[in-house]
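As agreed, record minuted below.
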Amino acid sequence: MPVLHERPRWRDTFISLRIYNYRLYVISQLIANTSGWMQKIATDWLVNELTHNITLVGVTVFLQFAPVLVFGVWGGVIADRVDKRRLMMATQSVTAALCATLGLLTILGIVEVWQVWGVALLLGLVAVVEGPARSAFVNEMVGHGRLRNAISLNASIFHLGGLLGPAISGVLIALVGSGWSISVNAIAAVLVVVALASMRVRELRPSPRAERARGQIREGLSYVIAKPTIFWPMVMLAFVSTFGMTLPVLLVSFADTVYQTGATGYGLYSSAAAVGALSGAVLSTRRMNVRLRTIVVAAGLFGLALILAGSVSWEPLFIVFLVSIGVTRLLFATGAESIVQLSTNRVIRGRVMSLYSIIMLGGQALGGPISGAIAEHLGVHVAMTVAGAIPALAAIVIGTVLARTGRLRLRLQLRRNRGPFVIVRRASGA
């Protein structure tokens, strides 16, 4: 699927920022993502401090993402029917109230694990409608022509927040405790509401709203299954999100029990992965096209990087592999989301992206307790290796299926200006 007619100049790497509404949105999202990572680091560490049980940290992840598994498809229907900007303003207002409450309880020293889990569950319910609305709203700000660039920029902002947030949160936790890292996210949510309210509404390109009708969820499922450029990235995403995207749960254990670096080390490890992810996001803006095979290869390399990280015991080398995990994860994530969004009709995009969110967030909800339990009983090195081995194996299987379906094969070539292998179509009857 071609996304650019020619490779962009470096000054056009983030060309979508020339749009006022999107520029305002990006600034607010940089603040929100940084504070969101701060809250996540603080919440995970808070549960670890209260329970000293890595499995219960995984339960916290599960509670935050479980609502998407149960109600995610209805969230997509809602996003297709309503004004997405106003919906996001409402969800961010609720997020501000929840984070302020949890932060205050933590600062006062009266927080209990059930309260942390309750807020995590409610934030998960907010994500049910906010996730698909946010994905579809990007197109309304930038249009179809700059959508690919905006998706890569969104990933850059998300992981730049992942670079700054854990480092800031690690320092705050060490100095004043987890409560302040959580409270900052409440302020950031308010700033997002202000940014959305300040947009030039006349410059938006509203998506056609879906009329109320029976069978809209079934229509979305049928649409996904019928299009290979949507179906296969989602299948690959299921394996990557369930096993490979539970890295925060594992990093808690690496910081606490393996390298014994505490909250500061947890922030350092998360930041290392985010540095790689930011690099991957910038590289993804240089892509001329998006292919199914490049998505599968990126997923396989991501799994391999996790296996290598799980096999070492020297901290500097572990950090190097965390950077490679970030790069390959981002190349997979931006490629998968790009090909799904660019393949989807605007009127049904909310439902498609809700299914995408169900797979990504729901996979993390299931994978969090699984990875936590493996780390608890078999060791975190084994858990990290399993987290990489399953996506890598899935990439091999899916790649083989796609190759057989498309009658493709690898051919050795000796041209210097290209790689040693090229993929070609087998002749009929071969």
